[in-house]
Write a structure and sequence with these properties.
binds protoporphyrin IX containing FE, two-stranded antiparallel ribbon, transmembrane, Cytochrome p450, 4-stranded mixed β-sheet
């Protein structure tokens, strides 16, 4: 009798284990899929992951070395295909751009936070073309000409506020809030035709916090809820944060749209900007209220975090690279002199300064994985199968440390760009991808449409910082160049430095402007 009971128990245990293995196996072990022609998935790790946390680029770089230029990795039920070579990036994202230009419907980013709106999340097709067209109106060459003087002015205010806040180098300062406000003002002008008039205006802190929260919640693989559908039905603190962020974006950016609209309705002459374009075209393009809020919010905060991040990385790098600083300031003294400071028109005659900006973007791209693309059809590439729905990720970290393209790639060495006479915008169009300066602005049809604006902003800020200041780190507060804040957008761990005016004339030029309201 006893032996029959124990036999039953054993059978039940075996059945239970088999059922468990049936359901758990695909969650733990790599799924092997083959297409009709017998092509296998690109190689990759044997287990599935739930998420990748901070410094994910290190894991990706190691896998790229182990599995090659195109490898695949399962995150829960989602397949990622990782591109780590310039030629593969061109073949997939540029030449086959019609197939690799859509976006995954991420649960946290696209559904909870953006509620299906915003250009960065829009799926390739009618919606994306509509969004891109509207962005192109706001960023057309004539509009850019108008923003040029604004950007010039904002860079002036940036240098002045750093100079004044640091009491001419007496007090060490954390530059993050100032570079953030600089980038924010530029974006507010392009999006809403307004600017903040002081660093302490509450909108500055609010907008920068929202940008940081957005970047942290929307990393390509920071939320396991994106890869395990069952979790989408359960409450979680992350999801609550996502909802709060959605509401805050509507509140802050919607509030600014309402202000703009009431100015328009009262007959005031309002400036050309993204929101004017959206309101003018609202009916024709059938844009609802959330479309307006999310389009303007994500356009603005995307341009803030990235541009501010690059200025911060420049300031983090330069105190420990004295030879670069000396060479840059010698170039400025020889070409510009000390009676005026550089303008945008001087860019071509200051190749070393341009090289510094490119090198900062290479060693410290603000997004190591750009914004993931997604395959809208099954595709076979060199005998490898990329199924429809795969997320295709540009691995900028490995691309930027390709020793064949950038020898001694971990060194901050602007010299490597000494023969590069092109702007980033021009470089991104080069037919030989090995000649492209870097991949910081992405690739293919979804390449950053704000590239020319970002380039101009960075030029004005960084060339004028170099012209104006000597940069000193604090002996007791080392600046980390390895660690960083952020799961998606990367900014340095907060740091302080002294900005000491190089000569008396700096103060004279800086004090020729005051804060103004537009
Ligand atoms: C240094 C500053 C910036 C960096 C590093 C940067 C980087 C990027 C990257 C990597 C992408 C994704 C590209 C891809 O999917 O392949 C992107 C998309 C985008 N960027 Fe930027 N960006 C910057 C500044 C700006 C500025 C100033 C604006 C607006 C004026 C802007 C507007 C956009 C928009 C609207 C998209 C979405 C494009 C789409 O999905 O079709 N960005 N950016």
């Amino acid at each position: 009798m006893l032996s029959i009971v124990s036999l039953f128990k054993q059978i039940w245990a075996s059945v239970f284990l088999l059922v468990l293995a049936y359901f758990v196996r695909p969650v733990i072990l790599r799924r092997l899929i083959v297409d009709n022609e017998g092509n296998h998935l690109p190689p990759g790790p044997n287990i599935c992951y739930a998420f990748l946390r901070k410094y994910a680029e290190r894991a990706l770089d190691a896998w790229a070395k182990q599995y090659g230029d195109l490898f695949s990795i399962w995150m829960g039920s989602q397949l990622f295909v990782v591109v780590s070579d310039p030629h593969v990036a061109r073949d997939l994202l540029v030449i086959n751009g019609a197939i690799f230009s859509t976006r995954k419907r991420y649960f946290m980013k696209n559904q909870v936070i953006l509620n299906g709106r915003a250009i960065t999340a829009s799926e390739y097709g009618h919606k994306w073309r509509q969004h891109r067209r509207l962005a192109a109106i706001a960023l057309n060459p004539m509009a850019m000409e108008q923003y040029a003087s604004v950007m010039d002015y904002e860079s002036h205010i940036l240098i002045k506020s750093l100079h004044d806040e640091g009491a001419r180098g007496k007090h060490p300062i954390n530059p993050a809030h100032f570079s953030g406000r600089f980038a924010l003002n530029n974006m507010l002008i392009m999006s809403f035709g307004i600017r903040t008039t002081s660093a302490s205006e509450p909108l500055v802190a609010k907008a920068l916090d929202l940008a940081m929260e957005f970047m942290d919640l929307t990393g390509p693989w920071s939320n396991c809820v994106d890869f395990f559908e069952i979790l989408q039905y359960l409450p979680s603190s992350k999801r609550t944060r996502g909802r709060r962020l959605h509401d805050a974006l509507i509140d802050v950016y919607g509030g600014m749209i309402m202000d703009f609209k009431s100015r328009m309705l009262s007959g005031e002459e309002v400036p050309d900007c993204l929101v004017k374009t959206l309101l003018d075209n609202q009916e024709k393009e059938m844009l609802d209220w959330e479309d307006l809020c999310m389009l303007s919010a994500v356009f603005t905060l995307g341009g803030v975090h990235s541009t501010s991040g690059i200025i911060q990385w420049f300031l983090a790098l330069i105190p420990s690279h004295r030879e670069v600083l000396t060479r840059a300031q010698t170039e400025l003294d020889e070409v510009i002199g000390r009676n005026r400071w550089p303008t945008f028109e001087d860019e071509e005659s200051l190749p070393f300064i341009r090289a510094i900006i490119k090198e900062v973007q290479r060693v410290h791209a603000p997004f190591w994985f750009a914004t993931p693309h997604c395959a809208s059809e099954d595709f076979a590439y060199k005998g490898m199968y990329i199924p429809k729905g795969s997320v295709v990720l540009l691995n900028c970290y490995t691309l930027h440390h390709n020793e064949a393209r950038y020898p001694d790639s971990f060194k901050f060495n602007p010299e490597r760009y000494k023969d590069d006479k092109l702007s980033c915008t021009e470089s991104a169009k080069l037919p030989d991808v090995m000649d492209r300066d870097h991949w910081t602005f992405g690739a293919g049809r979804r390449i950053c449409p704000g590239l020319p604006a970002a380039e101009r902003e960075l030029w004005l800020a960084i060339s004028r910082l170099l012209w104006s200041f000597d940069f000193q780190a604090l002996p007791d507060e080392p600046i980390s160049l390895e660690e960083y804040d952020g799961l998606s957008g990367r900014t340095p761990i907060p740091f302080r430095l002294r900005l000491i005016p190089r000569f008396d004339g700096v103060g004279h030029i800086i004090n020729t402007v005051e804060e103004m309201t537009l």
